[in-house]
Amino acid sequence: MKTRKATVLIATAVALTLGATACNDSKDDKSGSKPGKSAADAALTQIVNKSDKKGGTATYAMSDVPDSLDPGNTYYGWVQNFSRLYGRTLTTFKPAAGKDGLTVVPDLAESLGKPSADAKTWTYTLKKGLKFEDGTPITSKDVKYAVERSNFAPEALSNGPTYFKSHLIGGDKYEGPYKNKDPKGIESIETPDDTTIVFKLKDAFADFDYLATFSQTAPVPRDKDKGATYVQHIVSSGPYKFESYEEGKSATLVRNPQWDAKTDPNRPALPDKISIRFKVNAVTVDNDLLADNLTVDAAGTGVSPQTQPKVITNPKYKAQTDGSYAGATSYIGLNVNVAPFDNIHCRKAVQWGIDKASIQAAAGGAPKGDVASTLLPPSVNGYAKFNLYETPGDKGDEAKAKDELKQCGQPNGFSTSLTARSDRPSEMAMATAVQASLKKLNINAEIKSFPAGKYFQNFAGNPQYVHDHKLGMIMTAWGADWPTGFGFLDQIINGAAIKPSGGNNVQELNDPAINKALNDAIANTDKTAREKAWGDIDKMVAENASAVPLIYRKNLLFRPTSATNVTVTQAYLGMYDYLLMGSSK
Amino acid sequence: MSDLNKTGAAVGEPVAERPADAGEAFLSVRDLRIHFNTDDGLVKSVDGVSFDIKPGQTLGIVGESGSGKSVTSLGVMGLHRSANAKISGEVWLDGEELIGADPDHVRRLRGRKMAMIFQDPLSAMHPYYTVGAQIVEAYRVHNEVSKKVARTRAIEMLDRVGIPEPGKRVDAYPHEFSGGMRQRAMIAMALVNNPELLIADEPTTALDVTVQAQILDLIRDLQKEFGSAVIMITHDLGVVAEMADDLLVMYGGRCIERGPAEKVFYEPQHPYTWGLLGSMPRIDREETDRLIPVKGSPPSLINVPSGCAFNPRCPYADLPKDNVTRTVRPELKQWDDAEGHFSACHMSQEERTRIWTEEIAPKL
Amino acid sequence: MAAYIIRRAFGAVVLLLIVSAVTFAIYFLVPRLAGQTMDQLAAQYVGKDANAGAIAAVKKNLGFDQPLYEQYWHFIKQIFVGATYKFGPDASVCNAPCFGYSFKNHVEVWPQLTERIPVTFSLAIGAAVIWLISGVAIGVVSALKRGSFMDRFFMAIALAGVSLPIFFTGMLGQGLFTVQWPIWNGVHYVNFTDNPADWAWNLLIPWCSLAFLYSALYARLTRAGMLETMGEDYIRTARAKGLRERTVIGRHGLRAALTPIVTIFGMDFGLLIGGAVITEQVFSFPGLGFYAVDGVRNNDLPVVMGVTLVAAFFIVLCNLLVDLVYAAIDPRVRLS
């Protein structure tokens, strides 16, 4: 009897659903939006489903949570991209397809920063008519305060990077706006009037316009700042404001009427509403994308491994994918202070002998990345294409490698250790492939794995540990905080980045020539010359042979048919540009 | 009692008419067979039992556990529900045959025309309901009355069976009663609809001796008052000694002796009955002299011994000639001198009389 | 009765204290045994850019610079009297019951817990209703038709149900009804107060997935219980009274057979309220279980403590309720 009731219930439910589906169908017919014809990888070079039609709801979801949606408390690439919807920054990246997307353009500022001749003083002038969502005008002091709170208050906002802190004069002394209540704030940021802001740096820093793109320059009104809980009541300066925010679950953005499109050529602001859900099961996110229930996976790192085969093998789905560069390179650091890699010929033996094709296959094949020959990935400003160790089919050149081994004094090969992060399956798989491909040269690499959480701090990046345990080969991967050669290279090849407490220069490369080249280039305000320098420096590292680039990492992004104005932005780790994106739903 | 000495119809034969020999009996059972299919084989729990009871009379059914006495009574009540139970024969209650009747019709008779008292009132009453509620339920299922009326009736019945403060105890739970009180309550529940047949299945076994007597007195009193026929099932001849009008002794699913109580008591015709009498406690006997138990254990109901089922335990099994006790099953035969006194034994009547008078009776 | 409840409540408080102390010790003492310093513990809550200054600031702000007993005392005290924290320009007051702030994102734990309890409760209550009704019904039918085709069929399904983990049935259900046959447009938690119909509609698949597992279990339990009770003497008595079979089964058989079910149900439900971890993960429902997993993953002590205490509280509460209900069902049980 009770089961019969249950049957009735289910039957009713099914009937209701069919009804609901029918309604949806008719709505779709009316809207009459035609799915854009597009091929795989179309959004890498153009805007797919191009649209200037306003309206609809864009639905974002992701399997993780953001570190914070507070523009002043985040390090996540996708939040940098996403937060531009509600937080305007001094400068930002041009919302455009292809290489164009790497261009820095003014946002709050009238123009890009005006550097002093020594590139140590940067001045920005704010546009007129900028307002917060409550109608109060945005002033340079709000920008200054945002930088102060985001860089100098780690007791409350510890997630974000601290580049401003390390470059500003007196950055190591200032205690931050929460401890030091003096409204004057840090002296090295000057706000002579409400529209001017001047940053005074202790070193020359020609990439400062890139720092100004950081969400940390999105203005925050001092009297609305609640520290760690500001995230629950973010005051918008962009085209959208928060209608709701549920910690760890979801947020909804609606149009901000105080935003003036005339001050903002960068944001088409297509959807009327943007909703984002966190902690949605990864496979569910993928399924919802395929079923066109979602507009985009906010994380922007591509479909999950379970979904990948389904997407690649189905031609219909395949046409909706974009294999974008994630802005990161996987490579092996050969530690120049661990024998026998203190000898350049032993390093070169590895460079020549390694079978990169097999490593690419181990990492998941072409969808996961292209074989790399440089440290800088192609999606970074300053990337220059070259290959000093070119071998047929990237399979390695045994003869050349053996020749180098002889010159190194190790004609019969040698034994060493190869480290990898135990909780990163693809890195472990790559390490195994590296090990196999070196066997042919009689180089016996013993794999040692460590947890990712402490990898650089305690193990592979800690010189003492590395020397004590003779860790010659260190698997690692690196992506830049901003897409220039300096942003990418400084932390991994500059001698200054070797830290006793653990750092990312795992090769312990400390070549005065390279250090100087880096420092000279970053002081150079000539953009063209600067960008050329990055490629040259990359080549110097290749000549030094202490880093073996393996693959340029790629994401397999999926764009549902309802997503409009879709393009990959190289500025944000190869995810879709959220400023442009709209939805036909 | 009339002649019941027929061995009965074949299993499953349709029954149409009330047996002619049933006379004025309120309940007539004819050749009742209750067999159970089990994984080990066919268990013949009851294998051809017949008897009659007149209104107001008491029949005692006596036997060891496993002799089929309880199964017989449940068969009369129509309480064998298992699909594995095969029931045949006839049960006539007040002119109606029950074995072939509509089960729902039989259900309506249960509790109203025939009621039953069980052995262990603690397990036989539902632990979660008050005594009153259980009596009320028994009453209302056969009488369309309000709960209030039924409750009054329950209190009245509790009072009648001798429960002090019935108005209070009606709301008590079975576990709050003493053993004797519980059995009284059980009797109250059984009699609440004035049944014309009351089956008491070992009603006093779980009780101590003084309470036993009270309960038996109570049943006897109530029987007089209500005029019901009573079947008293027991393994203890002492229990039925004073109450029963007729006695039926069962062994291995069959009746081995049946007759008027005084006959069976004073001139028992079966060695098994002798054994039962021997194990009967008597106050006028010395401790050492009494209690001659029946040696051995009850027979398997799947592989009943061939010939006389009692033969493995019978001290006289070798007396009849040609090993007949082990090959031929003895018929239930009327003893020549006594009207309605039957027994199933291969020994000659002379031998039995001699053994009884010379060997058994003096020891009792 | 009142004395009994008071005594049980006191026991519960002691239990919760022990649970909290153990959780606290696991968090602080185990890493210490593994040779971790307080600085390293604090470094977990600093972002990617964990420089020494930031670590020191975080360490101080989280109170890691104080002795352990001081920290524990502070944690317990704040539950009753609240506390003041400083995660911004102004001190923020955390009113009692205060479970502190997340180490990871400085969000107050108690409002998060109260926000998530309804999610888990919604999940548990619906599933419980479904599994109780279907499980008991199937169990009764199977017991009464023991050995029949229906019995074998149901019991085979029940075996499957008991054997199949929720992440399988949940994923399968979700895959079938949101992708293969998209009857559901994705499954998301909707607050009951926002839209009861949407609430139930979105919960239907999770309910059924969860209920499938449990109803299988309950069907088997009910069947075994019914088989046992239907052989009891009082069932024979009930039949001897001339009661209809329906009454015999329902009022006499099932009533007694349900008693152990109530006990197990109480415990299952308590555990489920403490966090339907896997179900919430599969369906991305922001309930307690989800919160617990996050807390553990982030090594977020206040979150773990909060969830543990709430879960323990519900388990203790459900056990107490079971005992009370048990006493109500079975008059032989005396609470003392």
TrEMBL record, chain B:
<feature type="domain" description="ABC transporter">
    <location>
        <begin position="29"/>
        <end position="277"/>
    </location>
</feature>
<dbReference type="InterPro" id="IPR027417">
    <property type="entry name" value="P-loop_NTPase"/>
</dbReference>
<dbReference type="Pfam" id="PF00005">
    <property type="entry name" value="ABC_tran"/>
</dbReference>
<dbReference type="InterPro" id="IPR013563">
    <property type="entry name" value="Oligopep_ABC_C"/>
</dbReference>
<dbReference type="Pfam" id="PF08352">
    <property type="entry name" value="oligo_HPY"/>
</dbReference>
<keyword id="KW-0472">Membrane</keyword>
<keyword id="KW-0067">ATP-binding</keyword>
<dbReference type="InterPro" id="IPR050388">
    <property type="entry name" value="ABC_Ni/Peptide_Import"/>
</dbReference>
<keyword id="KW-1003">Cell membrane</keyword>
<protein>
    <submittedName>
        <fullName>ABC transporter ATP-binding protein</fullName>
    </submittedName>
</protein>
<dbReference type="GO" id="GO:0005524">
    <property type="term" value="F:ATP binding"/>
</dbReference>
<dbReference type="InterPro" id="IPR003439">
    <property type="entry name" value="ABC_transporter-like_ATP-bd"/>
</dbReference>
<dbReference type="InterPro" id="IPR017871">
    <property type="entry name" value="ABC_transporter-like_CS"/>
</dbReference>
<keyword id="KW-0813">Transport</keyword>
<keyword id="KW-0547">Nucleotide-binding</keyword>
<dbReference type="InterPro" id="IPR003593">
    <property type="entry name" value="AAA+_ATPase"/>
</dbReference>
<comment type="similarity">
    <text>Belongs to the ABC transporter superfamily.</text>
</comment>
Automatic annotation (TrEMBL), chain C:
<feature type="transmembrane region" description="Helical">
    <location>
        <begin position="119"/>
        <end position="141"/>
    </location>
</feature>
<feature type="transmembrane region" description="Helical">
    <location>
        <begin position="12"/>
        <end position="30"/>
    </location>
</feature>
<protein>
    <submittedName>
        <fullName>ABC transporter permease</fullName>
    </submittedName>
</protein>
<keyword id="KW-0813">Transport</keyword>
<keyword id="KW-0472">Membrane</keyword>
<dbReference type="InterPro" id="IPR035906">
    <property type="entry name" value="MetI-like_sf"/>
</dbReference>
<keyword id="KW-1133">Transmembrane helix</keyword>
<dbReference type="Pfam" id="PF19300">
    <property type="entry name" value="BPD_transp_1_N"/>
</dbReference>
<feature type="transmembrane region" description="Helical">
    <location>
        <begin position="199"/>
        <end position="219"/>
    </location>
</feature>
<dbReference type="InterPro" id="IPR000515">
    <property type="entry name" value="MetI-like"/>
</dbReference>
<feature type="transmembrane region" description="Helical">
    <location>
        <begin position="303"/>
        <end position="329"/>
    </location>
</feature>
<feature type="transmembrane region" description="Helical">
    <location>
        <begin position="261"/>
        <end position="283"/>
    </location>
</feature>
<feature type="domain" description="ABC transmembrane type-1">
    <location>
        <begin position="117"/>
        <end position="326"/>
    </location>
</feature>
<keyword id="KW-1003">Cell membrane</keyword>
<keyword id="KW-0812">Transmembrane</keyword>
<comment type="similarity">
    <text>Belongs to the binding-protein-dependent transport system permease family.</text>
</comment>
<dbReference type="Pfam" id="PF00528">
    <property type="entry name" value="BPD_transp_1"/>
</dbReference>
<dbReference type="InterPro" id="IPR045621">
    <property type="entry name" value="BPD_transp_1_N"/>
</dbReference>
<feature type="transmembrane region" description="Helical">
    <location>
        <begin position="153"/>
        <end position="179"/>
    </location>
</feature>
